[in-house]
Hints:
CATH architecture of the domain at 58-327 and 344-358: Alpha-Beta Barrel
Strand content: 25-35%
Structural class: alpha/beta
Shape: globular
Number of helices: 10
CATH class of the domain at 58-327 and 344-358: Alpha Beta
Oligomer: single chain
Number of strands: 17
Distance between the termini: 47 Å
Radius of gyration: 23 Å
Order of helices and strands: EEEEEEEEEHEHEHEHEHEHHHHHEEE
CATH topology of the domain at 58-327 and 344-358: TIM Barrel
Amino acid sequence: MKYELLLKGGHVIDPQNSIDEPMDVAISDGKIAAVKKEIKGDQAHRVLDVKGLYVTPGLIDLHTHLYATPGNRDAWAGDNSVFPDGFSFRTGVTTMVDAGSSGWRNFEDFRYRVIDRAQTRVFAMINITGLGMITDIPEQNVYDMDPELTAEMAKKHSDVIVAVKTAHYFGPEWVSIERAIAAGELADLPIVVDVGYFRRERPYYEMVTSKLRPGDMATHMFRAPIPFLGPEGRLLNYLHLARQRGVLFDVGHGGGSFVFRNAVPSVEQGFYPDTISSDLHTDSSNGSMMDLPTVMSKFLAMGMPLWEIIKTTTSTPAKLLKHPELGHLGEGAVADLAVLNLLQGNFAYYDAEHGRLEASQRLFNELTIKDGTIVWDWNARGAVDYRKLGETYGVRDCDEVVFPTEEHLL
Length: 410
């Protein structure tokens, strides 16, 4: 057979390659082998019928918390984090980025216990504070915000560390951002900022228009304290100025960082996020965030085009990660795919403060492929009618099938 796996009849959305139409997708050796209007089924060892569904690159969740092993109570680097494989494939996500749960003191423990053991492809931001997110208290320790040691660790693990993170800082100074930028310059990495506590001495508009560099990112862009609208309901100009400077904006929905009051007018006025991410952790996954397809569905309900939504969860984050083999379905790309069902019906979504938005559509992931292998198959498209498999299919781990003696047959 020319191909190992063939997805037939789906509607492919691949923003990087400007594809938005029905196409067949063929896979061989863990790579995309062909994307064409028609690929004959007899050319593939296995054929999956995905008619009526959207076929996209595997989703990339740029903001998650995965350092679940330290045993710290009520901590992002601890019990509030989740193990990646339990939440990734079932939602169409093949790549996750931990958003600074660990710092230069404990990153190697995080890598050994989580990153290197996960089936999910995991990258990480490194926190500017040495202990990362072991509660908010260590993140206030300016004496542990060490640019040199942070950069040294980032360069040592450059295959997985993709940014420097600062988060949850309470003080009135810019010190956490300045130290993160210093580390980023030493390691040639962007920084990602979670503002933490909003202080009048360090206003948000100043951060995005003068402090952050081109390529740096502000996450939790739709938090309630961020000013968005002027007196006439128009988006404030500083947001456009920041974007013109090259500053990036990430959703990072989370358990308390997203309100429709800011998101709806932004989408209506065309100020879309650069990346849509979940801020996945135990609270958000069981709260209003739920999972990445749910967050994507909220933007669909607000009027953001599906093409743009897929772009913010595939090709754009792949470029930010500097991994050109991900985030698209071009020939030779890594065969990571999500197969999404756009459900029609009566739905409603709520934000982090229990604001409600009704909608008629919802994205639901039915099939996930990573490196050419089916890793989630909600509707059993990769399976075979059991009646065609023979009487002994599935028999394993035994010397032989031992039947009862004659008197025990009935």
